[in-house]
Amino acid sequence: MKKQLHRIVLIGFAIAILPAATGCETVHNLQSNDQSGAAATPAVTSNTNKPAPSTPDPDRSAAVSSNGEEPSDMVKEKPQVSPDKAYRVSKPTLMGATLGTPKEEVLNLFGKARNTFIMDEDPQAVTVYEYPDFSIGFNVFDRLEFIQVLSPDIDPGLSGLHLGDSIGEALNVLGKPDNRTDYVLAYKALNTILKLDVDPGSGTIKSIKLFPAS
Questions:
Q1: Is residue 1 part of a domain?
Q2: Is residue 112 part of a domain?
Q3: Angle at 76 between CA 72 and CA 77, to 5 degrees
Q4: The domain spanning residue 143 has which CATH number?
Q5: Domain total for the chain?
Q6: Residue at 124 is within a domain
Q7: Which of 109, 114, 181, 214 has the most C-beta neighbours closer than 10 Å?
């Protein structure tokens, strides 16, 4: 009887300590799982303090432009005629220029024109360059085709003869014309014609023009 009672006590004691042992094992397993999870999760490193890569400045060399301006040719309104460039029968000129002279050379003498246009009515088109007091024309070969004086302020290079002077003064300077009408005095020299338009009422010179003889 005592042996049975002793066995019952031992069995009860074993039953009493079994839950406590199970609880300790559960806690141990949970701690192990927590440590394993912490080891498996990589640490997150913040890059907020890392400086951002610098952006290079744009190349501004292409945006730099020159403000320099090409100098424009000035209009030489009243060119002076030297004595060696004056009109002669052996070398007919007007305003010191000779017919057939290249355009570049003529424009260097007179400067930039105020206006240009093309005379289409001529058999060969002539490009006219207008200046304040005179005009010139170039043929299709860019050679001087004519010169016309339109103002008394311009020196034609005719030994002092100017627009507004009398017919008598023209005859004294240039001599007898090859052709003469009430409106025109014309002088021929080396395939050129020097034409003086006159006003029959006042007897004065209205314009002077040098052009090729046809």
A1: no
A2: yes
A3: 130
A4: 3.40.33.10
A5: 1
A6: yes
A7: 109
SS3 annotation, 167-195:
HHHHHHHHCCCCEECCCEEEEEECCEEEE
Asked whether residue 95 is domain-assigned, the answer is yes
Inter-residue contact 174 to 181 (CB < 8 Å): no
Q: State the residue for tokens 């001087």.
A: 144
Residue 167 sits at the vertex; the CA angle it makes with 163 and 173, to the nearest 5 degrees, is: 80
Lookup: tokens for 213: 């003889």
Q: What percent of the chain has pLDDT over 70?
A: 63
Query: What residues make up the domain containing 196?
Result: 83-212
pLDDT at 202 over 70: yes
Phi, psi values for residue 111, rounded to 5°: 85, -170
Whole-angstrom distance, CA of residue 95 vs CA of residue 118: 22
0.70 cut: is pTM over it?
no
Grouping H, G, I as helix, E, B as strand and the rest as coil, residue 166 is strand
Contact between 94 and 210 (Cβ < 8 Å): yes
